[in-house]
Amino acid sequence: MIAKIKKLFRKNWLLLLIMIAVVMAITFYRGGVYMKAKAEEQRVENLKAEKVSARKAKNTFENIKAIHIQSSTLDRMTGYINMGMEIVFQDNFSVTFGYSYSDNDEFDVLTTYTLEDPNRQKRGVTASNLQVTYSNGEKETI
Predict the structure, then answer these.
(1) Which residues lie closer than 8 Å to 103 by C-beta, 6 or more apart?
(2) Are 46 and 76 in contact (CB under 8 A)?
(3) How far apart are CA 99 and CA 19, in angstroms?
């Protein structure tokens, strides 16, 4: 009788372990899918912020030939976006600088930035088209 009880207990124990393993496998799989979806959502949000940033830079400085965005970070808690970019002007002078702006910013220009060379980084609007390279390597003409 005791042998039958032990045998039954072992079978139930094994069945319980198998059920726990299946539940854990499903949970890990779904968690991985969720993380991939969140990463893709973050990438899309960063690209959108970079596109807005490129337009703001075009409306802030004159004589821009190309913009290379090196990094971007979106802080969801504060709504601020931090950018690192290199701007190449028509005379092939380039300047690298970082700046941040609010996602709720209603201005169409950059309001806070650092001037590397005030003689070349002149405020104004670039009327011609320029080449923008985003941090993911995607290129666009705006």
Answers:
(1) 49, 74, 79, 80, 81
(2) no
(3) 52
Task: For residue range 69-116, list pLDDT tens digits in order.
Answer: 999 888 888 888 889 999 999 999 899 888 888 877 777 778 778 778
pLDDT digits (tens, 9 = 90+) for 14-40: 888 888 999 999 888 888 888 999 999
Q: Does pLDDT of 62 surpass 70?
A: yes
Query: Three-state DSSP class for 101?
Result: strand
In this prediction, residue 6 has a pLDDT band, given cuts at 50, 70 and 90, of: low
Neighbouring residues of 76: CB distance < 8 A, sequence distance ≥ 6:
none
Written as one letter, the residue type at 29 is Y
Cβ partners under 8 Å of residue 97, min gap 6: 84, 85, 87, 113, 114, 116
